[in-house]
Every structure is written in C-alpha cells, then in structure tokens.
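pasting for the record
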Amino acid sequence: MSRLQSQQKVCDVAGMANNIIHLGADDRSSTRVRIVDATLRCLARQGVAKTTVDDIAREAKFSRATLYRTFPGGKDAVLEAVVETEVARLFSSLAVVMGEAADLEEVLVAGMTEAARRLTTHSAITYLLLHEPGFILPRLTFADMDRVLLVAGDFAAPFFGRWLEPDQASRAAEWAVRIVLAYMADPAPDTDLTDPDDTRALVRTFVLPGILALREPGDDHLQHSRHTTHHATSTTTIKGAVQ
C-alpha cells in the first residue's frame, strides 16, 4: 500500500465511522443490538459461565424464541456477535481520534489513550478480568494473540501510514497494539495509559524513538506535505462522519 493509498484508507475508515456507530450503538430498535447489549449487562454482572440464554432473553425483554430466531447458534453465536459489535464500536471511536491527529506522536497518543480508556472502563471486560481471566487472557496470548495483532494492526496501520512507509506503519501499529494489550493484562503502577500525559511521556521516551529509527533517510522532508494534504482531507471527512 502506497502513502497515498494509506491516506485514502484513513479517509475511508473515518467516513465509515458514522455507519459503524449507528449500527453498533445507536440503533436501539434493532433486535440484534438489544440482545448484544443485554448480554453485555449480564456479563458485567455474572460473567460468561453463569450467563444463560434465558438470562439474556429476560434482560433484553425478548422471548427465547426471538433470541434463537436472531441467533440460531444460541449462546455461542450471541457471544460472537458481542465481540464483533464491541470491536466495531472500538474501531469507530479510534477512527475519529486517530483521524484528527496532526502528527505521528499525536496519532500514537490518541490511539493508545482512547483504546486504553475504552477497554479499562468496559464493564464486561473488567468483570471477566477479575473473575474469569481464563476467558480473556488466553485470547491475548499465544496463537490468539497473532490474530488480535493482525486485525488491530490492519486497522491502525493506515493512520501511521500518513507519516511512515507501509512496512514501517505496520510495525508501528503492532508495537502500539502490543503496549495496550500488555497494559490491559498487567497495568503498570507508575503509568496510566488512560492519561494522555502519561501516554505521551511513554511514547516520547520509548515508542517514538524506535519508530523513527525505522524511517529511511530523506523521509523527513516529505512529512509536512503529507500531513498538510491529509489533514485538510481527513478533517472534512471526520466532520461529515460525526455530524
């Protein structure tokens, strides 16, 4: 993917944000979304093991028949839909804040802070990490970790591609995702990634120097022109998406 394609990809993702937000969070008349949100409330109260199809249907104020018509696969299908919906919601919020970033440091800080904030304040995730860590942690390690990094990295790389070559952008995106996931699994007592100042200090000290070392000589003189072109385009797109 070229730098121009990366810029276009960012604009495309930002333009999709409005649709993702609507389908994933605002369409409360949707049976599917009502069931997903009811499941999240059940998970936040009692976790995965104790949540039954009856619990979910009761919380959503639907019959079992309605739930099974919507999700013929039952509880497993509902849980899969919960993950898909919450990932869409996360990516939607990240697309807005990362799309508005003015430089490489800011896109790192904005993305990492927003991701950490949403993940650490997510009621269902918080409960599962405390009471059923075996459901969450294996998905952030070993083979499943590769899948998480691939999906999150593919999403984030175009935003970094505004200032980096494609291979550099992919590595930068992977580093940022790894840091956020590591923080989720074992928060550092002296660093709060939900605090922009703490995140900025971390980025300036450890992350940005490593990423900038990946850049080829002569890249710097291109940064201003790429930023100027992208900022004018993405700002217009983002405003259209959130209005």
